[in-house]
Amino acid sequence: MQLTPMDLSQLSVLVIDDNSHMRTLLRAILTGFGIRRIFEANEGDRGYSSTVDHQPDIVLCDWVMWPGDGADYMTRLRADEDRRIAMTPVIMLSADTRKAVILKALQLGIHEFLAKPVSPALMYARLERTVRENRPFVRRGRYFGPVPRASIPMPAANGQRKEPPSGEDEAVFI
Fold first, then answer.
1. Is 52 exposed, middle or buried (0-12, 13-18, 19+ CB in 10 A)?
2. What is the reported pLDDT for 174?
3. Distance of alpha carbon 16 from alpha carbon 59, whole angstroms
4. Strand runs labelled E in the chain
5. Between the CA of residue 100 and those of 58, 76, 123, 172, what are the distances in Å?
6. How many CA atoms lie within 13 A of 148 on its CB side?
């Protein structure tokens, strides 16, 4: 089944990255998707303030920044008393794609993880999936974020639920 391309022109997106060239590249990609309301911040603390001020539909956040990295941003965001702010969808970006980094980002409540260098096709797919899925949020112990995909039943061709891969050496699927 092929989905009709989604009109992303009404989305507002906040880009948080300490590299001005990356912010420019991401802005160009987003503009190419028809997105016109794009806000920028050059580190996590300013990104958090921009999230509160602009209340974007989606945030693209770099993992490695100084001061205020992606982990700091996610911790502050998910702890915000205003649920509209706390439940803002976040797509985390990083050139560091080690399993430990991805798992930490997931534990902090991201919606998606995208490896740098960023491919426009993958960026579009992550944006579209974030909007289409509109996953509900859950609080489980210290976790507050979107319901993990692994806990959502996935129908298989034969009608049986597909189980996510397990084991320490397996790739991380989000």
1. middle
2. 56
3. 7
4. 12-16, 37-41, 58-62, 90-94, 112-115, 137-140, 143-146
5. 24, 20, 22, 10
6. 16
Rounded Cα distance between 31 and 37, Å, is: 9
Q: What's the CATH architecture for 12-148?
A: 3-Layer(aba) Sandwich (3.40)
- CB 98 within 8 Å of CB 5: no
Q: Is 120 exposed, middle or buried (0-12, 13-18, 19+ CB in 10 A)?
A: middle
Successive 10-residue mean pLDDT values, the chain, 174 residues: 81 98 98 98 97 99 95 98 98 98 97 97 97 93 89 59 48 51
User: Taking a C-beta distance cutoff of 8 angstroms, is the pair 123, 29 a contact?
Assistant: yes
